[in-house]
Amino acid sequence: QAPATYRYDVFISFRGEDTRKGFLSHLQVALRQNQIQTFRDDDGMDKGGLIWDELLHAIRNSNLFLVIFSENYASSRWCLKELVEIMERKNNKNVVIPVFYGIEPTHVRKQSGSYRRAFDKHERSSEDRCHVQQWRTALTQ
Predict the structure, then answer these.
(1) pLDDT of residue 93
(2) Most buried of 35, 55, 56, 88, CB within 10 angstroms?
(3) Inter-CA distances, 80 with 32, 45, 49, 67, 134, Å
(4) What's the Enzyme Commission number for this chain (predicted)?
């Protein structure tokens, strides 16, 4: 159930090593200058807390989602878990905006190139194997 008011206007899902120091920092400054309240996973996270619980709470309390697909996004199980939750919110009528940063949309949708390599690794991991189909579906959407 969607909250009556949201704590965050925008939740940003991204792979830090690809985007944090350039594109993302400039984007966040521009959003904040326009009084748009954003959440990204390195903002105010309780380093000693339960990180997934905090992320889940932020996702559930955000109005709009900005997913920055980059070369290594699919290599992160955290990013893929966030994406599954975000796509569930989309089904609740929240808006999801994909941004393709240095990657072709077809590589994301069809899991080719670096996304195929990432999924090859996920499929070999006993920890990830049970989530692979769910992650593939979220990327295709």
Answers:
(1) 80
(2) 55
(3) 26, 19, 21, 11, 9
(4) 3.2.2.6
Candidates 3.40.50.2300, 3.40.50.300, 3.40.50.10140, 3.30.450.50; CATH matching 10-139: 3.40.50.10140
Parts of the chain with a pLDDT under 50? 1-2
Catalytic: which of 71, 82, 85, 104?
82
pTM over 0.90: no
**Domain ranges, ordered by start, for the chain:** 10-139
